[in-house]
Amino acid sequence: MPKTPDHILILAQAPAKPAVGAPCNGCGVCCLLEPCPLGVVLSGTSQGRCQVLRWDARALIYRCGAITKSREVLAQRLPHWLRWAAPPLASVLAVLAVRWVAAGKGCDCDAELEPTAGTDVSA
Ligand code: SF4
Ligand code: SF4
User: Fold this and answer.
1) Of the bound ligands, which one is closest to the alpha carbon of residue 26?
2) Where are the alpha helices (DSSP H) in 11-69?
């Protein structure tokens, strides 16, 4: 079973994690702690921050790159010989990702955070 990290880095501009069940606000905590099942496939590991998590500097929130940057993510994560397939597969990934990651639902992350120094937050 993957070990949940006891320490993660979060950008200071990110919104605070809401309570479980509240609307997702893009705080990024869940994806910084460990990848979801889709993130495991795309990251190639079940531990550490999801490799396809992206920071939206305009909205000041984290976003799932499988949904918002699907073409870029596929171009980076597909094996070299399959990169030609990134454009045609991008819209498929985006649609599937919305379903797989339960985007738009309430927060289901029960991590309890304890700010330490600067942008560090313990979990
Ligand atoms: S599901 Fe919860 S922890 Fe994950 S980004 Fe949304 S609000 Fe943050
Ligand atoms: S929701 Fe997206 S960014 Fe978050 S862990 Fe899953 S695949 Fe990665």
Assistant:
1) 1
2) 29-33, 37-43, 65-68
For ligand 1, the distance from its centroid to the CA atom of residue 21, given in whole angstroms, is 10
**What are the C-alpha distances in Å from 2 to residues 32, 64, 68, 108?**
14, 21, 27, 18
- Residue type present at position 109: C
Question: Which of 29, 106, 22 has the alpha carbon at shortest distance from 62?
Answer: 29
Distance of alpha carbon 113 from alpha carbon 94, whole angstroms:
30
CA–CA dist 29, 69 (Å, integer): 19
Residue whose CA is at the smallest distance from ligand 1 atom 4: 30
Q: Which residue matches tokens 């490799």? A: 51
pTM of the model: 0.87
Give 84-110 pLDDT, tens digit per residue: 999 999 999 998 888 777 777 899 999
Say whether pLDDT at 5 is over 80: no
